[in-house]
Amino acid sequence: MARGNTDDLHAVAGAMRTWQAGARVREFGSEWPFVTFSPLAEAHERGEAAEYTWRRYHENARRAPHLLRLHSFITVAIREPRLRQLMPFTSHWNLGFSRTVLNGLAASGAPPFRSTLA
């Protein structure tokens, strides 16, 4: 969700200090312009990561061949509130849904639901 590149170690240390102090994404990016953030980072901050990801999967299916076969499913699923509250993700040709915005194990320790795309 973030990336940066600089040869200035003082800037790296300053950026780390700012991040650890809890700076918001836009504030952080203004102070340390060598770091850029994806739109998902801001959506995550607003508590809208799952909604953003659903929208991205729906709107970008043609640019993501592994999602193209699922476009009709995503079109229907995006209208279902119970599914929209889950975080969709893809990994190794699998589509998964998690109760948390982090991929992998859900907060309860239970594995997320997954379905093979291939």
Radius of gyration: 17 Å
Tell me roughly what share of residues is in helical segments.
Answer: 40-55%
User: What proportion strand?
Assistant: 15-25%
Compute the number of strand runs: 5
The class by helix and strand makeup works out as: alpha+beta
Structural topology:
Layout lengths: L1 E3 L4 H12 L4 H7 L3 E3 L1 H7 L3 H11 L5 H4 L2 H7 L3 H4 L2 E5 L2 E5 L14 E4 L2
Structure description:
With 118 residues, the protein is of the alpha+beta class. It is built from 7 helices and 5 strands. The strands form 2 sheets. The protein has a 3-stranded antiparallel beta sheet. A two-stranded antiparallel ribbon has the order 1-2. A hairpin with a 2-residue loop joins strand 3 and strand 4. The relative contact order is 0.10. About 11% of the residues have low confidence.
Short structural summary:
By secondary structure, the chain is an alpha+beta fold. The chain has helices spanning 9-20, 25-31, 39-45, 49-59, 65-68, 71-77, 81-84; strands at 2-4, 35-37, 87-91, 94-98, 113-116.
Descriptors for this entry?
118 residues, alpha+beta, 3-stranded antiparallel beta sheet, two-stranded antiparallel sheet, 5 strands, 44% helix, 17% strand, elongated
